[in-house]
Specification:
mainly alpha; single chain
Length: about 70
C-alpha cells in the first residue's frame, strides 16, 4: 500500500506541475473576467472535465497512441 500511495503522489505532483494552476489562474481570470460568477463556474467545470478526460485517455491509451505514430 505504501508503494501505491507513493506512486499516486508522484503522478499527482507531475500532473500538478504540468497543468500549472497558479499561472493558469491569471489566464482564466483574464478570459472570464467580464462574465458572471455562475458562467465562470460552468466554464471552469467544463474545462476541468475535458482536461480529466484527456488525461485519462492518454493514461489508458498512451502506449497504443505512441505505437500508432511510431
Amino acid at each position: 500500500m505504501s508503494q501505491l500511495f507513493e506512486h499516486a503522489l508522484t503522478v499527482f505532483m507531475a500532473f500538478f506541475a504540468i497543468m500549472n494552476p497558479i499561472a493558469n489562474t491569471t489566464v482564466f481570470a483574464g478570459l472570464t473576467g467580464s462574465m458572471g460568477k455562475s458562467e465562470q463556474v460552468k466554464i471552469a467545470v467544463k474545462s476541468l472535465t475535458i482536461t480529466f478526460v484527456i488525461i485519462v485517455l492518454f493514461s489508458i491509451l498512451g502506449k497504443s497512441i505512441f505505437h500508432l505514430f511510431g
